[in-house]
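Page 37, top half.
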Amino acid sequence: MKALPVLGKVGASFVTRRSLFAHAMRAGCLALGLAVGVTTASAEPIRIVTGGSFFSGNEDTGFTFVGTGFEFHVTQALDPVVSCTPCTPGTSINLSSTVDVSGWPAGTATVDGQTYESVFFSGSFSFQAGSVIAPGGNESILLFSPFTFTGTLAGFADASLTGTPLFATNLVGGGASPGTVALFSNEVVSTGLSLSQVDYHFDTTSATPEPASLLLLGSGAAWVVARRRKRSTDIHVPSR
């Protein structure tokens, strides 16, 4: 039987390289573990929105988010975040929406006892709501649906949204009463039915959207009517 040659310098070199590779892999894994640990430790907090509203369409648009240890407020001209062109009576319209916040005017914020009188927001919101059926007739009408909400929000000292943020947070919440409020209007006959206002009102109960359900609540009607102070057309809230 022919004896196999004993590894010389080439074999020793291979073993050395393999040992160095193993050390490098262990060091890389350790560095990755530390990086993951730091990322987890510095993760943005999750805050629950228990009050306030997000307004779009008509007047007084923007948002106010309220919860334990925080309050965020900004006014920004917004078209309805849900559109239907045209709003054909009988059509099912989903009231879910996504909103990006960037380039808005300065607002105010209070976070963990620190108040910022002029803060520029950056973030993204996701509202998951149910569907409503576009009404018929010639009068304005309100329809309602529960919703859930998730979002991210950061505040900056200047409009460029650069540098280290003053604060950054994740947001969750929802609303059931009145929840999502959609105003359908037929005020201008020439343009037909339009969806002129979509608002989301938060409460302490995080509602689970039910696509086929409507919550027809009179308390929501009073809130929305107050927003339409320059409008004179009557609003109709359908009975259950």
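Page 37, bottom half:
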Amino acid sequence: MTPSTLNTILNSAPMVIQGASKLINLIKEQSNTRPVEEEETQLTVENLKTDIDRLEARLAATDESNIEQIKLIEQLARQNEVMAESVGKSINRLNYLIVISILLGLLATFAFIFILLR
């Protein structure tokens, strides 16, 4: 790997960690906001309306949380894609360097044999 590739990976790592931390915190918040079981109350229209409003608010919060999680996952996917491209380019460069090294080694060997036979 070239130093520039390593720098790219190292510079991207904090963003990946930050995104993962945000996702973990969202999941923890979501699990911490579980409803507390309420005591049995009388079934009245007023109580049912209150329950419906509370459930709608929870659904909206869950939807917002899901949207945030999806955004974080998309961001992490983009960062992984950039890092994968960088690693792929590094592998290609390494392959070229290996081929060049082998060719130079063969050339040096032939030159050495040529000098010995002369």
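Margin note: The chain is about 85% helix and 0% strand.
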